[in-house]
Amino acid sequence: MKSIFITRQIPENGIKILKEKGYDVTVGKYKTPPTQPELIEELKKKNYDVVVPLLTDKIDSAVFDAVPTVKIFANYSVGFDNIDLEEATKRNIAVTNTPGDYVDGVAEHAVALLLAIMARLAEADQFVRAGKYQGWDPMLFMGDKLNGKTVAVIGTGRIGERFARKLSSGFGVKIIYYDVVRNERIEKECGAQFVSSVNEALALADAVSIHVPLLPTTHHLINKNNLAKMKPTAYLINTSRGPVVDEEALVKALQNGRIRGAGLDVFEFEPKLTKGLVKLSNTVLSPHIASSQLESREEMAEIVANNIIDFFEGRVPRNKVNK
Ligand code: NAD
D-isomer specific 2-hydroxyacid dehydrogenase catalytic domain location, by residue (predicted)? Predict the structure, then answer.
């Protein structure tokens, strides 16, 4: 019987598929990501055939050496930068990922962060819970309305495009965008206007939402210099990757009222936060959960199961990411 180690709890539907196929499945009991030595110690307890790591598990030569019986690492994540692919390929170990449909979920989360920060929802929620509400007050928590505003989308790939469509069709927003590739679909279908640089997008927008991948060219794409170009009434939303924004510069801009607010799902040094960020009331923060919807997470669990089944039934796993 093939045995599988899943490093932390994932939705049961994927585990059920594997058990029904006769696999022996063990799920790690960690509540937070294990360190690599902890993971290695656990893996050495049995001659596992498969490991299902999460994005937080670093898989490299140290793990490959410790568990030579494992021939497939079926990552429970669309990203796979946690795994040394080159080394896995050298050792003839398969690596797979879970490219499910997270696009609407992340785009919706970006819309939610934007609405929440403009309506000052997090601040108002804390106020009510703290028993401070003394009755209706026309001046209480005055926010901003989204209708009629100009929103800049930086990166109009899968998520950025979906975000632009939701805002232009449902909220009466004018979309401007910057991407290294022109997106004619949103120009035609959403009336989106292409601008020729990030700086121009930041200068014109009432709100900016970032949807680029983390690359050497996008590291600190939002920085002290271009934050200074934003309107003082503008908002910044980031659901892409933390290091795309210089978080220290952002904290300063928020502290000084250089911009009005920010909604962040990702952090430059996550799970650590830049000093000063948690004290800022003009932010809404979520712990990297933009794609955490039950439907998406269950779809990923099913994809993991199918990749493993493909492998042991002699097919190339449908989401194999290495050679
Ligand atoms: P995608 O590849 O479909 O789109 C990315 C877009 O960014 C492309 O259109 C590309 O041309 C553009 N781009 C690349 N470099 C650029 C640059 N220097 N300037 C401007 N545009 C540039 O990616 P996607 O699936 O839409 O994902 C977007 C981001 O969302 C990624 O960073 C991804 O990691 C992140 N993401 C976050 C979560 C979450 O839970 N918060 C979940 C899934 C994805």
Answer: 4-322
